[in-house]
């Protein structure tokens, strides 16, 4: 008989037990990653990310899990529901707390509900939705949300009764390229010339770049990366970022084989850094920063170096992170992302369902138009 339980810390489950169910294809569900977030203070009640992971056991043995948090705000999610929260407030209702299944601060598509292979997935999705609704009622939460599940999971959540929302991202796909020039050969002449000019401009500014696996990064290089990370958030948001140096130190120790750090140097002085995570078949671009501005350096460090790495390592996909239409003309294809939603208030649920129906039509039209801006030759 299956037993479902909510836990308030990743440490309630042993790392090997958790990872045996989560698998090792997707780095952000690894016990070490979620533990680093929690232990460094990034996911706590004080930060509005209180762990509430759902675990499923059979005969005391872990056979399913869902990363889950009690949220007291909507920061760090990248699926924006601020308008929903504002509508609740204007009607005298509380939108927070809410239940959220997501990887904190990480808009990367991947598994959410992980189940042992012999379990009946469709039936369990319905059971889990019922449990989420019951838990939301116990907590006085307005809603439950699942962000950035992969497409198969999204379909199961929808069949289990959750509303579906779609959005755009831009991913690079490896079509069996043997080199970066092989990839560029698929571009139209003008677009190919533009991209080569960008890369040449980076070199002409006296910059050189290197890619380091996590185990090859020194302490001083990690400190420099963290300084860059903080500078990026200071420019964008006026704060030092969601993640602390302790978090990055923890993953540097525990996930070195999953990390790729790109460093840019002017002479022998580091001037920029970009951190990537590597899954079984996908490279995930996550954090970037620079100490001064250079023409096209962001594109080189965050996109072109990642593409070269994927080609060299035979990876099938590069997910460089959320947003950024400028990625399209550099060969990143527009794709559909998914999120799933349940709202306890029936009238608000109906209103959101109507909004999502209209929004989905607009997103579909946008994705078609965006695909026309890709740089590839006709027929590619």
Number of helices: 11
Share of helix, binned: 25-40%
Low-confidence stretches: none
Q: Can you name the CATH architecture of the largest domain? A: 3-Layer(aba) Sandwich
Q: Radius of gyration, Cα only, in angstroms?
A: 21 Å
Number of E-type strands: 15
Number of domains in the coordinates?
2
Output the helix-strand order.
EHHEEEEHEEHEHEHHEHHEEEHEEH
Mean pLDDT: 97
Strand content: 15-25%
Write the layout of secondary structure elements.
Elements: E1 2-7, H1 15-22, H2 31-39, E2 49-51, E3 53-58, E4 61-66, E5 69-71, H3 82-90, E6 98-101, E7 114-115, H4 121-139, E8 143-147, H5 151-159, E9 163-173, H6 180-184, H7 189-204, E10 207-213, H8 219-237, H9 245-254, E11 259-266, E12 269-278, E13 282-290, H10 297-313, E14 317-319, E15 333-343, H11 346-371
Parallel strand pairs: 6-8, 13-14
Antiparallel strand pairs: 1-3, 2-5, 3-4, 4-7, 5-6, 8-15, 9-14, 9-15, 10-11, 11-12, 12-13
Helix pairs in contact: 2-9
């Amino acid at each position: 008989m299956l037993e479902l339980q909510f836990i308030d810390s990743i440490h309630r489950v042993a790392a090997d037990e958790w990872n045996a169910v989560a698998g090792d294809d997707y780095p952000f569900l690894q016990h070490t990653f979620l533990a680093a977030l929690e232990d460094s203070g990034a996911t706590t009640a004080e930060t509005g990310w209180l762990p509430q992971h759902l675990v499923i056991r059979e005969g005391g043995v872990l056979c399913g899990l869902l990363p889950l948090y009690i949220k007291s705000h909507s920061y760090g999610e990248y699926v924006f529901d601020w308008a929903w929260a504002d509508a609740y407030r204007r009607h005298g209702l509380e939108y927070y707390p809410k239940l959220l299944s997501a990887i904190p601060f990480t808009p990367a598509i991947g598994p959410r509900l992980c189940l042992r292979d012999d379990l009946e997935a469709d039936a369990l999705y319905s059971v889990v939705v019922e449990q989420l609704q019951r838990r939301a009622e116990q907590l006085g939460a307005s809603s439950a949300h699942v962000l950035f599940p992969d497409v198969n999971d999204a379909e199961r959540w929808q069949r289990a009764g959750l509303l579906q929302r779609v959005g755009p991202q831009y991913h690079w796909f490896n079509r069996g390229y043997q080199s970066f020039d092989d990839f560029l050969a698929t571009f139209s002449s003008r677009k190919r010339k533009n991209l080569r000019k960008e890369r040449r401009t980076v070199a002409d500014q006296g910059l050189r770049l290197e890619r380091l696996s996590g185990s090859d990064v020194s302490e001083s290089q990690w400190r420099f990366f963290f300084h860059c990370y903080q500078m990026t958030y200071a420019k964008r948001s006026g704060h030092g970022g969601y993640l602390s140096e302790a978090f990055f130190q923890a993953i540097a120790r525990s996930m070195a084989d999953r990390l790729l750090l790109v460093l840019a140097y002017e002479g022998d002085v580091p001037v920029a850094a970009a951190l990537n995570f590597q899954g079984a078949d996908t490279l995930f671009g996550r954090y970037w920063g620079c100490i001064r501005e250079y023409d096209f350096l962001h594109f080189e460090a965050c996109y072109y170096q990642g593409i070269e790495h994927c080609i060299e390592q035979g990876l099938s996909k590069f997910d460089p992170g959320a947003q950024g239409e400028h990625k399209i003309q550099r060969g990143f294809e527009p794709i559909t992302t998914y999120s799933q939603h349940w709202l306890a208030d029936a009238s608000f649920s109906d209103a959101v369902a109507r909004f999502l129906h209209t929004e989905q039509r607009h997103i579909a039209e946008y994705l078609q138009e965006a695909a026309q801006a890709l740089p590839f030759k006709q027929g590619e």
